[in-house]
Every structure is written in structure tokens, then in C-alpha cells.
Batch of 2 targets.
Target 1
Amino acid sequence: MIGATPLGMSDEIGFRDRTDEVAFPIPVPRGLTPKTLTGTVQTPVDLESGHLEAWSGDLLLARIAIDGRRDFTPVEIPLEGARVRNGVADVTLRTVLHSEGEACPDWTGRTLEFRDGEVVFDGGLEVPRVLADFIPPVLERLEIYLPTDPSTVEAEAAAELALAASARFGTRDLEVAILPADGVRATAASPFTRRVELREETESRITLVEAPVPTAEVVGDASTLAHQVRSVSTNLRDLAIADSVSVETNLPVPRALVTEATLNELDIGTVTSRGVGTVTATFGLDQTRLATAAGDVTLELSGTYSPPPADHSGLVVVEAGGTVIDSWVADPSGLIDRTVVVPGDVLGRYTDISVSLQTSGAGASCGVVQPLTMVLSGDSRLRIGESGSPAPRGFDSLPQAMMPRVQVATGSASLDDTRRAITILVELQRLSASLLRPEWVTVEELTDGAAPGLLVSSDGIADGLPLPLELTGGRTLEVMGAGDVEPAILRFSEDIDFASLQVVEDDDRAILVASTSSGSGELDRTLEWLSADPDRWAGLRGDVLFTAPGREPVQLSTAEAAGAAAVDEDGGSATVRTALLVGSVVAVAGVALAGLAWLATGRGRPRRRS
């Protein structure tokens, strides 16, 4: 039995309205046959009855009655007749629902949901005999083995492999482990575990190794190791019908940033929606798909909607991330031909854009009134403006501010620092619709360069970059403001220990800095805390994540904290405001309040390097 998440599906699949369908493709590992799909249906308020149907192409697999009086209904869907093509079973779930009474309920906030899906398989997994079969359609754990002191070539190749796997399996709770090649290895593992040994050598090849757990050895020199590793993210792997092969090809060009595109070109296509009384067509603006941190976005919307009848009035409303950005009175033409501007400050990493028609007037029982239809044409165009800052929203600007290529530097060449850097990159890749392209460089090359980057410093506080939160002398924290705002200064009576992740705006680039004042322990605890909950990386806000011994990590927007502290410089109120705003940082540090001196003014320092 395999759960929905390892299969690449959400644990909660919502159906948007009275009738809706959702594709549920099921990866089928070699040697297995899908037998049954089980799960639980959660019903919305005001549901009287309905059916959940499962189809494979034009073949009905099952039709299950749903009783609205039950909040939860267990379901079991037979899959023996499902069509399996190219290792994927074609399954689509469809709903037909009926509401109580005459009114049409609004189920947009809480729809019928299919939850906790699991697939029961028959048969036995086949052991891969050729490289083309090495990567299964379901992967739970990838172990990458490196030398104790990996070269930059080996570190970069390991990152490439981890990111390619994360891009393909990242929504499936894939665990990526970076391990020493000379360490002890377990002789048993999950059947969906794969091991890869990476090593820099003069020859170039990929070879299946005889081992209790399926293992591949990838070797190459400085110019070819990356070729071998990158082949796993292309269709070339399907041609490797032997147990050993060498790949010779040019490296793929990093995806160029998008400055202008239609919904069709962004693979969103035409968006169609139906409703009664109100109808909303929604699409997502994903900055990682654009491969840039966007400024203002101009939308040239085109499409149609059902014009309201004579005894109804109507209003068309455009929202971005829940903020209304435009509206106009619906007219009898039923045409949408409108240019609106989405301000950059309302754009997150992923932002829902919605166009809705809201009507009023005489009503009737649900289904009697002709449903409203809204169609946004796939020819609607987006024009992406440049952001005035590479990281205007801190963590929410990542990873799109690190595209198309990100430089990576570590304070030491150790396997542990390499592991920390790859762990961070993998988590960022999970947030991205485009593949990150890492380039391993020295710390000096990163700090003196102009490319976006990631710096991991586990043996001290990072130097040479304008950090939003800086420690000086072991006892003074400077919380930097924006522009000409003076930093807020926190003075402690003793040395403080902490680790942090900080998003740095350095001229026209963004750099993520992971560093510590007291050794690697707190930094590792921070990364473990982030990885323990799949929503924590996506939920990071502000530009600093601060961790002190024995305390939970705290998020902070330094610009807001320092800016608020400087609002009122008369009468000493700024000092009080600083204490209130950044007091959480002091509490995290675990230092007695009696030993603190709070100052809201200090020597100014420019935020960006000159």
C-alpha cells in the first residue's frame, strides 16, 4: 500500500463546485499492478446527496453514493480496469452533488474533499537490472555518497542530482541524505530507496553496482561529472538499457527569465468557471515559473462572461492575493478586454489572480437560474516589470531571486557544510516550478561577485556582506533598517550565541546566508526545525530566521523593526518601541532583561555595498 503523497498527490483533494473533476494519475512501479484506491470523502455543509465517480478514459471504474448526513464516508475504488500507459495509471475522480433546500450554497471555502488516499498494489517490485530502470516512479529516499572532503566538482554534482530528484519527486516527501562514502551503510532499506556514489575521476561512466540496496556509481572528471549527473533529469536515462553507460552531451542552458507571456505560454491555458449568482475564474502567478523576482505585473485580460439579465446588476472584480486591484460594472456585451496592473508589493512567491462576476437581483431555486459562465482566454498576456530590489519580500522572494543560476559557497570544504548547503537548496527547489542551477564557488568569489547566491558558514558569522542582523563584538546586535534609516542596536551584558538564516539585498542581487556565532549545532538545529514540517520553508516571512540555544526559531523583518523604532526620535519613545518590536529576539537569546541596554540610535551603516 502506498499513500497519496509518495505517489505525487495531495492528501486533500478538493472539488470546486457541484460538478467537478480532478485527475489522479497513479505511478505504477515495475512489477506491480494497481488494485484498489481507498480514502475518505469529507462532505461540505448543505450537501444532501451526491456521487463520486472514478473514470479511466471513457471507462467507469466505480460510482459511489455520498450521503450528506455523514461528515466522513470511507470509499474503496477498484482499479483493475484502469489503463496503465508508460508506467502511469490513468484515473480521474468526478463529483455530482445536490444541495439541501432551494438555495445554492457557496462551497468555495469548504468543498467536498477526498482525503488520505492510498493505493493497494498486487505483485512484487522488480530489481533494476539496467540503468533505464534505476529511478522508480515512486522514490522515498535518495542517498548520495561523497568523499569526506568533497571537491567543488563533486559538491556541485551532488547538488545537481539532489535538485533534479527534488524537482521530480519533491511533492512526494522525498528524503535526500548526503552521506560519507567511507561510512557504514545499512544492508536493508525501503524498496523505494536509491543510492548514488559520486566521485571525481579521470574516466567517465555511470554503473549499476551489486548491492543489497539498488546503487549506481557516477564518476567523471571536472568537465564530465556534471554531464553524467544531469542526464538523470532528461529523457536520456530511458535509453540507458545497459548496466553501465557514459553520457556525452552539452550542458542544458539555464531557463531564461520571463518578461512577457500569455497564459497559454505559461501552461495555464484558458480558464473556465461556472456558478450561480457569482462566478470566479482563478489562475496562479508563480514567480518561480517566471524565473525572476517580479516588480509590477501588467495583465492584459481578455475573455467572456454571461451578461446579467435585465433585472440583475453585475460587477466584475479583479483580485490579486486577496487584494482588489480593479473593478467595473458588467455590461450586456459580456466581453472582458481590460488592462490592470498588479503592484509588486502584493505579489508573493505564488499569488492567486481571480476575475469574478458578482450579480444581484431576483433569484430562484438552485439550478433553475441559468448558471453564469466566466472564461479567461489563454491569449491573456502578462508583462513582467523589473523589481526595484532583488529580494523585496525577504524569504518570499526565494528561490525566484536566485534564478537562473545560483552561486554556492561554504565556509569550509567539509562534507558537513556541503550537506547543509544541499539541504537548503533542496528545500528551495521544493518551492520552485523551475530547476535551480547551482554553481560551486569560493566565499571570496561569491562575496565579491554579482550573481545571486547561497553562503553557508558553520564556523562563524559571515563577513563581507551587509547582513540585516549583525553581531559585533560578541555582545551587540544591529538590526538594520531600509534606506537611510539608522539601525536599532541591542547591547547585551554577555556574549550571545545564535544561528540565523538571512536574506541579503546586495546591490542588484539576493544572497541567502546561513551562519552561526557558536559552532554548527544551532545551525543544524535550525535546518532540522525547518525540515520537520513541510510548510515551514514555504511559510517563512521577513528577512531573518533567528535561533538561540533552547529556544524556538523566530522570524523577523528587520526593515519593519528598525523603521518603526525610528518613527519617533523625540522623548525617548523610540527606545521603548524598539524594545517592544525586537523584544522577541532578546527573549530568544535567553538573556536577562535586567542586563540589557536598549538603544535606538547608533552609527549609521549603508545597507548595500558601495
Target 2
Amino acid sequence: MPFILIVVKRKIHIALVGNPNSGKTSLFNSLTGLHQKVGNFPGVTVDKKTGTIHLTESLQAELIDLPGTYSLYPRRADEWVAYKVLMHADKDIKPDVILLVADASNLKRNLLFCSQIIDLKVPVIVALSMNDIALKKGIKIDIEGLKKDLKVPVIAVDPRKEKGFNELKKALAEIADKTNITTEDNFIDVKGLAALPIKQLQDILPQLSHYASIHYLINHENFPLDNALQEKIEQIEINNQFNPIKTQAAEILQRYQHIKEIIQKNVSEPNPLQKKLFTDKIDNFLLHKTWGYVILFFVLFLLFQSIFWLARFPMDGIEWGFQQISTWLNQSLPQAWWSDLIINGLVAGLSGIMVFIPQIMILFGLITILEDSGYMARISFLSDKLMRKVGLNGKSVMPMISGFACAVPAIMSTRNIENKKERLLTILVTPLMSCSARLPVYTILISLAIDNKYYFGFLSLQGLVMMGLYLLGLIMALIVSYVLKSFINLKEKSFFILELPVYRPPRWKNVGITMLEKAKLFITDAGRIIMIISLLLWFLSSFGPNNKTQQIEKKYTTLTQQYPQQKAVLEKQFLSEKLQNSYAGILGKTIEPIIKPLGFDWKIGIALITSFAAREVFVGTMATLYSVEENDNATLREKMHAAKREDGTKVYTLASALSLLVFYVLAMQCMSTLAVVKRETKSWKWPVIQFIYMTGLAYSMSLIVYFLFK
């Protein structure tokens, strides 16, 4: 009988921590590859990234990438997330081992956080990254000496080249069994900071180390403790006149004094008066008070254009593919309501989701390249002054610029804004940026209303109007943010502390992983809501009250039998009349009195409703509505140009076309954007407020424009 060996794998949890820009994310991506999951920490919108790594044949680890933080004294929401996990105050995540990433090129700053983690008396390993940059700076580190002084394993790694990974995995496997560090040999004299309060607290909570006791005394209100225990800790503070600020200040001074000794002993640094690193030299140009903004504008122009250039072909391919699928289904499926549901509901809704994927992947790929190269921090630094005046900060500029491509990934990218109020303001105004889906609307309406004139032989009037629409969205976003900042009652202090990383070539594996991760996140989260609303819109456009649809079908069946040679024309008329008498069509007629002051008719009203699925649906809706024209060879533009109202006046005059353009610039016309806003804010409150204010703004501005040009 054959002998079967079954290996039972044990699983541990490793928390990955470190300062921002220390190489933590690169290490996470390299260790886990595509074995990653992305979610949110409970109650907050901070990303929770987890990945699986195999340490040995029998030992597997779940690596949890915690938000970057500079110390164990949190300020931002994401720092609180990391802090609670490290203090074992998070009920969902209990790490067995701490993997701390330290930047070798800036070791003094990184050792503050490192020393605090060591004093928590948990199993910890230090992964020393950025060693190549340290060498370029002339910094030499005695790793063995550093290991001896810190009393924890220290391993040099290079995530870009996957160097030191075997040694790191071996060390993680060895330390995994050391679930408790009993020694009280602290990095500093922690007990001397508050000896009696620490002793009294450890009598109640004996599992706490001396340093963890300090943090329980300072932040116990933020930990999940019962009321009786909270009162006991509070009484210890009162009885001993415990002062958190003085204790923290004394601790930091002691740590830096010890860190200075370790640096002098184990780190050889060049004279600071020696020639500057390449990064410092190039920043003289990129952060110049004049040329810095010129270069920034050029970089953003390339980014903006590249999204269109690169996404156009895959988007066209996806649209063509779904068009072929729809054509095949039309030819293969019988004429029935469920066939229409599959073709115009499910397939159309799925197409509306998938067509966004190239832009999302390309946008986040380009942003990751800017981040990896080190230039993203410079963009935030240069734009902070302007953004702060309207209630935002420098980190708001990239989501807003990304909104020119698509508001969906742009809103997703606001997660790196720490201040809740500034992040919320950025989310609320980003949809005012004119996304690429509005381009078909702009193009056809501008061609109807604006003459194709050129000034000075090269300045196109139509092109200037197009640029004006984009500028209008940007200017209104800044104005709206300035107004809303007074109404959003969030009192969190705003800090814009930014570290400028060195310039480095992007790590392409990291770029690829990010692109796939963001695409998956969009499909699984926002995609579900888009599909639901797409099916709802299909129902509203396909059915009407009082069996009206059946009457219309019967009417055109009879006409087709009587005039078979007119089948194509009758089919177009049938679709138009069916839409006109559907719930969506009735809604268009119902809202016509409301939109009539803007110069719109009921057909435009239907287009406003149907284009809520996606802005470019406007053109398709117009194509269906105007298919009843006798001249079958006329283009949509010609049909719209010839369109007249019941009184014989033209529908698309200069005033009405400009009014409609302004409406599409300012109105919330995309359900996927609202879906993502709901996901990011964890509430329907802000999407509703956003929809109401944008609709009101679009209506009032369109009304003004219509009367100015009437």
C-alpha cells in the first residue's frame, strides 16, 4: 500500500510597517506578487492590502501591509489604523510578527519608529531597504553592529531585484515561534518615564510591556476596553498626575540620544558639504518658482494626452467586441422581452463597465510611474499653495487632473489625502472635471453651434470653445470647493508634511500589479451597482404604462405587413415611438416644462435621463430619436441641425447648444461616479448632496447662458 505524506501548513500573520517612502509597498508587492487582496479596514476607507507568502513547506504567512507612519504617536486616520494593529487593539488583526522596513539612506529618522516597535516586546525583524541609494550618498552601514545594538534581526533587502528575500523568509520562519519576548531590556529607560503608573497598570493588565503600558495610559480611550477598565486606567492617571505630553517629549529625547550613539557607531556618512546628489540638483529646476510650473504643466499635458492616446485603441476594441456580441445575439435570439433584456440590459451594462477598464489601468499605471519615479510628490508640493486657498491641499491636484480622463478612478485615487475634509471636498468637486466620455457630446454640439473658423491661421474657434469647456469645469471646481469648505463641519487639522523622495526608475512589476489591482477593484465594487442601474434604465426605456408598448408593436406589425418595402424605415419609427411612450419617454415629456427654460425639448430630456448611464449615451439616444427623418442618408449631425420644434423654430440654436454644453460640463451625468462616491464615503448622503448641488449648478448656469445668447 503506497505511503501518502500529507503536509499540514501552519499559518501566521505578519504586519508590514514602516515610514512613508521607505520601500514598504515595493517589498510587499515583491513578496506577494499577484497573491493579494484589497479591502478596507472596518469603519474607515483606508486600504487593507493582504498577501500570501510561503516561508517553508509547512509554514505560510499572511502579510498585512499597514499604512505608513513615522512614529507610534498617530495623527491621521491611516496612522491610527496601523497604531491599533501594533498595539493589539484591533479585534480583526492580531499579528504574530512585525516586519519593519527601514530606509538605509535615512536611517536616523527611521530608527525612531523602529525603536518604538522594539520596545513593544513583540517578535520583530528589520528589513533594511534603499541600500543602493545609501551607497550613492556615500553612506556605509555596519549591519552586524546594527543588529547587535538593536538586538533584533536586521536584513538588507532590495525589492526591485529581490535580493535578500531568502534570508528574510528564513528569519521570519525562525522568529515565528517566538510569540512572546519576555526580556525588559528596553531601547530606552521606559520605566523611568513613569515608574509607578506603569507598575499599577501592569497589576491590572500584566501582559503589557513597560512601553505598551505608556501608550495605554496615553490613548486608552481609543482602545476597545470595557467601561470599568477605562475608569481604572483613568484613575491611575489622576492619582499619579500623569502628563502625556511631558512623557512623550521625554521619551523622544531619550530615543534620539540613543539613536545618535548607534548612528555614530555603525553608520559612516560623507561630509554634508560634498556635492549634492543628482536628485538635489534636478530639484533646482523642477521646483523652480517659475520653470517648475512650466515643467509641471508640460508633464500634466503629456499625462492627459497619453490617457487618450493609449486608451483609445483598447476602448474602441472593447466597444467593437461588444457590438459584435450584440449583433450576433440579435441575429441568434428570438424576438422576446428576455432577449431584449440580455442584449440591451445585461450586455449593454457590462459594456459600460468594461469600456472604462483601459482608462483605469492606464491612468493608475501612469500615476504609479510618477510615484515610483519620485515626481508625484513634487506635483503636490507645487500645487499646494493654490489648492489650500480653496480648502484643498497639494494632494488634491492629481485626482482632479485624473478626472479629465474618468471621474471613477480619480475619486478612487483620493485615498492618499489624509485630511478627511480635504479628501471629501476633492471627491465632491472632481466630477466637475470634463471626462473623456463627454467628448462625443462636446464634439457634436460644438459642430452644430460654432462655425469652423480659424484665427491667425491656426487657432480654431471650435477648439477654443472646447478648451473653454475644460477650463470652465476646473474653475467651477475651485469655486465650489471654496464655498463648500464653510459648510462641511469637520474640524480635523490640516497638515501638509511632505517628504520628497529621490528620483528612481519605476519598477515595472509594481506598475503592472497596481494596474491589475485597480481594474479588479472597479469591476467587483462599482461594477455591481452599474449593472443594477443599467437594468433599471433598460426597464424604463423598454416598457410603458397601460399596455402602450403592446399597442405600438401591434400597430407597426400591421404596417410592416402592409408596406414590407418600408420595413427598415418603419422599424426605426417603431423604436422611436416605443421610446417616446416608454416610462423614460413619459418622464422626458414630464420634465419638459422644467427644462424648456434652458432651451431643451422633450427629446433632449430623454437623452439627459438615458445618458445618466454614461455621458456618451447622449449621442446614441439622439441617433434613435432622430431616426424618423425621411432622409436615411443624412448624418446624425445633419438631422440634429435640421431638427425643429412644433412651432417651426430650430432646436439647436447657438443659445440652446451652448446651454446644453454648459449643462453637460456641470451636471452629474454618470451613475458609475455616484456608485464610487458611495463606496468611498461609505454613505449615500454625500452622493445625494453631490447630485443635488451639481444639478442645481448646471441648471442655473445653463439658464444664464441661454438668456445671454438667446
